[in-house]
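Task 17 of the worksheet. Students: predict the tertiary structure of the chain below and write it out as structure tokens. Keep your answer in the requested format; marks are given for formatting as well as content.
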Amino acid sequence: MASVVVVGSVAYDSVETPFGKVEDALGGAATYFSVAAGFFCDVQLVGCVGEDFRDEDLALLKSRQIDLAGLEKMKGKTFRWAGEYGYDLNERRTLDTQLNVFADFNPTLPQAYRSSDYVFLANIDPALQLRVLSQVDTPQLVACDTMNYWIEDHFETLLETLKHVDVLLINDGEARQLTQESNLIKAANKIHQWGPSTLVVKRGEYGALMFQRDHRNQASIFAAPAFPLEDVFDPTGAGDSFAGGFMGYLTGTNRSDPDAFRQAIIFGSVMASFNVEKFSLERLKTLTFTEIELRYREFKRLTHFDDFAHWRDEVTT
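Model answer:
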């Protein structure tokens, strides 16, 4: 089975929403991505943890087709993040960030990872993203994420990274900030010029938009809704779970045609929808691939409509 390399944070999160809270729950961008992608392909994780990283969390990762040769255990404490959400779960407030061992993270890929065809650069310093790319031989598809801090304070380095990226996955606010364009179509056109031929805009409860340019510079847009859920407990990691489903499917099928990208968007949306049903990784721990397939089909029914009948011709005759 094909593998995807992911580099990013492995963390402990303390999260409070109107529906409950958790303390020191397993989290981090690379963690959510890896567990979601592990349903579709093998995962090679590059990250770091501290001496306090729990044995049961290590066992969980090992049980999910995740190769941990690139997960470095360092002296000190694991990265910690604390945040809270109000009833608008699209908005979160960071209460505390303790980088701990992540402050000295200097990713080095094991030799076995360097021939990987698929790479996902989670939300980290773009200089580190470039360092990872310099260690991969000839990747077939590179995707990355970023955030407002890197856009604002490390813009030039981020642009250098984007020259080597095929797919950029960011939210709508980040797309507008990055390009200084309020219109997402104009933002996508600018991002295409910087390198990525595909832009995926994550829009939380409003779904996702994908903008693509093919080798003939022909543009296309694909839109998918978010799956309607009655119970949403914790949106933490939803975007990373989306990326895991998206990249996991492309890696597992070893496809990069337009139809595969559209299917990958739906699988990404499916994984994000399951992730938010419980706190931390609790829902993904019990998830089965049968459930994933069933929700994919529900997505298809949700968005399907037939072509219209030519009723005007009948009326006018």
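Marker's comment: The mean pLDDT is 94. Residues 3-316 form a domain with the UDP-N-acetylmuramoyl-L-alanine:D-glutamate ligase fold (CATH 3.40.1190.20).
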